Amino acid sequence: MLRSRLRPLPALSHLSSTDDPRDDDAAAAAAAEDEAEDIFAAFLPHLLPDDAPQFHGDPGQCLLYSSPRYGDLTIQVPSYPDQKSGSASSSSPPESDSVASAGIVIDSTSDSGQVSAQRSLFAHFLWSAGLVVAEAVEDAHAGHEHVDEMWKVEGEKVLELGAGAALPSIVSILAGAAEVTITDHPSSPALRGAIAFNLKRNIPATNGCAVSIQPHEWGTLASDSWAVANQGQFTRIIAADCFWMTSQHKNLAQTMKWFLAPEGRIWLVAGLHTGRSVVVDFLKTVVKMGLEVDTIYERDHNTSWTEGDGEIRRDWAEFREEEGPENRSRWCIVARLKHAG
């Protein structure tokens, strides 16, 4: 399962990208604790087969992402200035069909539909949808037969929207992308050091990919000089768990269409923590905006080719009568979009 690739690292939020993440004493204690946690985590899918976490880590925490191809990657989870590792309980991600019931405040009077509370952006987690993208890109780079070749990034120009910790971007860089641009909302905590930390920590200086970090507000296009300069330039666009704010669906769809190259593709991965109808609404919006769904299916988070069990998929459905909060978290929607016509 994908979550077995992640392990917490002790007290890394204060380290620079050149520090050793473990001293000798901490390493021994952490290794014993991690081993016990790993054993417990391995049994969770058997004890709770319908349960799968949608997000991982605490604000400011560093996680060890074990990549079969690229080795161990240290990923720092973004945090707001007044947040510390372990404080996530005060700002948990939305888990219900109603965004309002999750405590997310939308400024409906704003022309841009801005989320008035910065923490409602939920950049301060590593989302399972990002793990799905990272695994697929890595497996495609490894040449695994089960992976659609469209996940290959060698020589591609990649744009990640709502990147947060930017794990998919980091894996894309390691997988041979020609160019990777990492974007998040200008007020996102990820832009305050976490993305830069993750790049410096995991990308060799000899890597030839052209990498940039760009603040970007969805829907702000013709008035943004960077957006104007890069219209239609990206052959691969990553959008992982960016869809729960329905007020932003139109802006996000506009942004995707604006930046997508004529023959480019968009990778869309959406967890069901806010309900299936949110994903359905977004897909209807992208069609209205001039994009079309090239491929779509549902994937079980609790299975993985890397683990040797094979990935469990099922056909996409706009509605499942038997589905509810108690059994939907193990599934995510994976889709590939392109320009219509």
Automatic annotation (TrEMBL):
It holds the Pfam family Methyltransf_16. This is Nicotinamide N-methyltransferase. Coiled coil: none annotated. InterPro entries: Methyltransf_16, SAM-dependent_MTases_sf. Transmembrane segments: none annotated. GO terms for cellular component: cytoplasm. It comes from the Eukaryota. Residues 7-16, 85-99 have a biased composition (Low complexity). It comes from Aspergillus uvarum CBS 121591. GO terms for molecular function: S-adenosylmethionine-dependent methyltransferase activity. Residues 1-31, 77-99 are annotated as: Disordered.
